[in-house]
Amino acid sequence: MTPPDAGLARRRRTNAVMFGLAAVCTAVALSVLFVLLAYITWKGVSSLTWAFLSRLPRPVGEPGGGIAHAIVGTVKLVGLAAVLGVPVGVLGATYLSEYGSNRFGFAIRYCADVLNGIPSIVTGIFAFTVVVLPLKHFSALAGSVALAVIMIPLVLRSSEEFLRLVPVSVREAALALGVPRWKVIARVVLPTASRGIMTGSLLAVSRVAGETAPLVFTAFGARHWDQGWLQPIAALPLVIYSYAISPYEDWHRQAWAAAFLLLIVVLAGNLAARALMQPRQEGTGS
Fold it and tell me: Which of 32, 224, 259, 280 is the most buried (most CB within 10 A)?
């Protein structure tokens, strides 16, 4: 029979080994992240100037120019995608959290999880088929639709989790006062979970802001200011892609600068989401 002290010592050794392995894996993951961030910053920050941010591209082969058109295009594409995708995701999450304890709700969750795993290029082909082909040309609308399709399952699943965190007692208290259930959802449940829903939406926006493959099939890109929602439009991921594979050294430099700018945008979105998740500190009176 193993003495108690020997079993305790074995468990402590096992705990120390597993803790060390977890620490090593964490350090490796963080080192890769920091090396990537440091390299992009080193390559891109030196070329990030006001002229680069405020000017249009120069003719092909000429050095200089900027990416102002791509910045505006990214804002328009992601903004319209959020307008299209966030309401659908939140409404779907509301149904699942309040009425989705059945087979239909299970099917919706399963489909959302499958959509989350589909490669973004497949989503781009889908948007190309349902939007680009009927319109017979690439457009900002098609790009936003592709990004919205990617956003919907992300917002739906994250918002559902936040809505489920609203205590049942809060719902029951409102129902006990004779408030109709739809008013309980609209005026009690959704406002209570609003910070979490906003957090999930911001993370979804950050997720789609760097997508390239769907925009290749839909928005296509341009080297001038966009001409409306039904015409091709530039975006930061498209500029990075086209400049990175070009034979011009100046375009390579601009691609690194655009990648650094896109990194800052995504980082800002994640920091805003974390700030919303922080608990509010109520002032205490004396």
Answer: 259
Q: Does residue 219 have a pLDDT over 80?
A: yes
Range with the poorest average pLDDT among 3-7, 16-20, 43-47, 226-230: 3-7
pLDDT in tens, 62-120: 888 899 999 999 999 999 999 999 999 999 999 999 998 899 999 999 999 999 989 99
The tally of domains found in the chain comes to 1
Domain that holds residue 96: 65-280
pLDDT of residue 108: 93
Is 27 within the bounds of a domain? no
**How far is residue 264's CA from residue 136's CA, in Å, rounded to a whole number?**
35
Measured torsion, CA atoms of residues 4, 6, 8, 14, in degrees rounded to the nearest 10 = -150
Torsion of CA 47, 49, 51, 54, to 10 degrees: 110
What global pTM score does this model have? 0.88
